[in-house]
Amino acid sequence: MSDKGPWGGGGDSGNGSGGGGGDDGPRNPWSMPPAGKRGKIGGSTSLDEFLKRARTGGPGGGPSFPANAGRLWLAAVAALVLVWIAFTSFHSIGPQERGVVTMFGKYTGTLNSGIQFTLPAPIMRVQVEDVQNTRTESFPAGGGSQPNLMLTGDQNIVDLAYSVRWNVKSPEDYVFEIKNPQETVRAVAESSMRAAVAAKNLTQAIGPGRGEIEADVQTRMQALLDEYQSGVRVLGVSIQKAAAPSEVDNAFKAVTAAQQEAQSNLNRSRAYAQQVIARAQGDATEFDKIYEQYRMAPDVTRRRLYYETMEQVLNRADKTIVQPGVQAYLPLPEVRRQQQATPEPEAPAAAPAPEPTGAAR
Description:
Number of helices: 9
Strand content: 15-25%
Number of strands: 9
Order of helices and strands: HHEEEEEEEEHHHHEHHH
Distance between the termini: 216 Å
C-alpha cells in the first residue's frame, strides 16, 4: 500500500477513481462516496420529524396528543350541545301563528304566540302554522282562461269562474287530520259548487240566483270539512263569472235581453195599475164625502153640483151671455181671432162656358 496523501491519493491501486476503497484514512472530499454510503439529498428537518410522529405515534407506538387535548374536546362538545339546545328548544311564535308540539311524533299541545320553550329535538318538535293568513283558491286554476262547465237542474250548461277564501281555525287538526289541505279544500269546493248549481236552473245560475249559490256552497263546504275534522274555516265564496257556453252565448244574451224587456214592461204595467187604483180610490173617497153632504142638504148639494158641472162644461166652450133688457156685447176681437184661425174654404173652379150650337143670326 502506498502512502496516502491529504487529498485521498492512497488506497487500493485498483481503484481508478482514486477514492480509496477502505474505511481508514482520509478521503477525497470531491470524490463520489460508495453507493451504499451515499446520504439523502435534503435531509429531514425538525418539522418533518414532528409531522411524522403525529401521524405514526410517539416513541411508544401510541398517538401523541397535547396534555390539554381532552379539555378542548369537552369544550367543543359542550358548545355544540348548547347551540343545539338553543336552536331546537326555544321557539319564537308570531301573533298570527300557533305552534303544534309533538313528542316522538305524538301530539302533545299547541303553543300560543311569544317565546316558548320545549325539550330539544328530536325529543320534541314544533310545527308553526299561520292561522290568520287568508288563502284564496281560484276555479278554474288557470284564472278563468279555461272554461269551467257545470250542469244545471234544467239540463243546461253554465260556465262558472269563482274563488274560495279560507284560513286555519284548528292548527292541530290541520296538521294531523288531512295530508294535503290545499288539494282537499279544492276538491270539496268543486264538489259543493256542482251540487249547488245542480239545484238551480240556468236563469237562476246566471242571474238572480248567484247569491243563493254562493251561500249554499259555503254552507256545504264548511259542513263537509268539519266532518273531515280538517281544521279549515271557509270565509266566503265569490262567483266572478256565470254565463252560458261561448258557442250559444249570443242566443242566451238575446233571451236575457227579451226577459229584461218583459220584466220592464211588467213593472210599467204594475205602476200604471197602481196609479189607476189610487185615482179610483180618491174618487170614491170624494164621492163618499159629497154623499154625506147630500144627505144633510139635498137641494143645496144638487144645485152646487149642477153649477160645478156647468162651469166645467162651459169653461171649454165659446159662449155669449145675454140678459133681457141689456144691450148684448159683441166680442169683435174674439170673433176676428176665430176667423183668422179658421181657414177659408177654397172656391170651386168656374165651369167653362158652353160653345154655341149654331151661327148667330
